[in-house]
Write a structure and sequence with these properties.
Layout: E1 3-8, H1 9-12, H2 21-32, E2 36-39, E3 51-55, E4 73-76, H3 78-81, H4 90-93, H5 103-111, H6 120-123, E5 125-128, E6 131-132, E7 150-151, E8 165-168, H7 179-188, E9 193-195, H8 206-213, E10 221-224, H9 231-244, E11 249-255, H10 262-277, E12 281-286, H11 296-306, H12 309-312, H13 317-326, H14 336-347, H15 349-355, H16 360-363
Parallel strand pairs: 1-2, 1-3, 3-4, 5-8, 8-9, 10-11, 11-12
Antiparallel strand pairs: 6-7
Helix pairs in contact: 8-9, 13-14, 14-15
Length: 367
């Protein structure tokens, strides 16, 4: 019996909301071979293991590079190799994930006082890809390996009947030609499901909208509206979607990617305005370049406002700043939100006049 160590590098560097699916599959494979498998929670004593697999998803995850030279180490994942990362061998890729891999770590954290809800992705979901690939080739996205969307696995391949929900990590599900057959598989499980990636609303049709709106969906439907240049297409597809769906719909809004200037701020506000019009909620996703922008504070404050649905639904951006100001300890100074708003409004009054007082409840229309 060999002793196998598994390291989720993202978990060890400030944590991650999601388990590492590749490690869960490697764990299942090694356990099936009769080996002893352990999830390691630090980088100490690695020489004691016959083999150690290290995986990371995110490029920014900190990792001690000296470990790469150890003979018993294998590293993998997009965090190390981007879209050049090697696929798992089919005999591992298509194995039932080891859903118990993280149990000791998770229950220890819960015992120490962390909310169970923080680890729901580890405990409550069957996780997998029913399709892989995307033809969009977005420059900011790591999923450039394939030119089309293709079937990857049947739902039963990763379905744990003891878990109440299904979590799908497909790259661009609506781009798959036979999407309806996959939905039928999911419906047959009688378990609510959801997609992790923002669905591509640009591919919406009446048939897709009607089918999706009629399933047991877990949580909010989430799409993406990354660039203002797509506004006409996205609005036309939103009109289709709203004919069939009454559940909460959210959109990921990428910002600070093409530029980090006032035009990008204006485009972000305009996308938010469009979503308000259709009764949809934004989730602002700041590309890392925002940190070097002259408008860094605006990016931060817009995200603080837009990414809190209970506040966003009730308050305009200006009202959000005023609410923050009321809770500011020093009444003789401005809080960071109000200070940012005033500075931007002074320098860009036209943009401020157009967007700062927009309110979700007033902009929302019946489509």
């Amino acid at each position: 019996m060999a002793h196998i160590g598994l390291i989720d590098a993202d978990l060890l560097d400030n944590g991650t909301r999601h388990p590492n699916l590749a490690l869960m599959k490697i764990s299942a494979f090694e356990k099936n071979r009769g080996n002893d498998v352990k999830l390691l929670t630090d980088y100490n004593g690695l020489h004691k293991y016959d083999h150690v697999y290290v995986s990371k998803v995110f490029t920014y995850t900190d990792f001690p590079n000296k470990i790469k030279t150890m003979k018993n180490i294998t590293i993998g994942g997009t965090g190390f190799f981007g879209d050049k990362a090697e696929n798992l061998p089919n005999y591992i890729e298509h194995i039932m994930p080891d859903y118990e891999l993280y149990n000791d770590f998770v229950y220890k954290k819960i015992h120490e006082g962390t909310s169970r809800n923080a680890y729901k992705d580890y405990l409550d979901y069957s996780i997998g890809f029913t399709t892989r690939g995307c033809f969009r080739k977005c420059s900011f996205c790591v999923n450039k390996k394939y030119d089309k969307v293709f079937r990857h696995a049947k739902v039963k391949e990763f379905l744990d009947n003891d878990r109440p929900y299904i979590y799908l990590w497909d790259d661009n599900f609506l781009g798959y030609k036979y999407w309806e057959s996959v939905i039928d598989e999911l419906v047959a499980t009688n378990k609510p499901f959801k997609f992790r990636q923002g669905l591509d609303i640009r591919l919406m049709t009446d048939k897709k909208a009607k089918k999706l709106a009629g399933v047991k969906y877990h949580g909010d439907f989430i799409f993406a509206f990354d660039f203002i240049g797509d506004r006409n297409l996205i609005e036309s597809k939103l009109k289709i979607w709203k004919q069939y769906n009454s559940k909460t719909t959210k959109f990921y809004l990428l910002c600070a990617y093409d530029s980090q200037d006032v035009t990008d701020i204006e485009n972000l506000f305009e996308r938010i305005r469009i979503l308000m019009k259709y009764g949809c909620l934004p989730y602002v996703m700041r590309y890392d370049r925002y940190k070097d922008s002259d408008y860094r504070d605006m990016y931060i404050q817009i995200a603080r406002w837009a990414n809190q649905p209970q506040m966003f639904k009730k308050m305009s951006f200006r009202e959000f700043a005023e609410a923050n100001q009321r809770h500011h300890k020093n009444k003789n100074t401005d809080c960071s939100t109000m200070r940012t708003l005033k500075h931007f409004e002074k320098n860009h009054p036209t943009i401020a006049r157009k967007y700062f007082d927009l309110k979700f409840i007033k902009e929302k229309e019946t489509i």
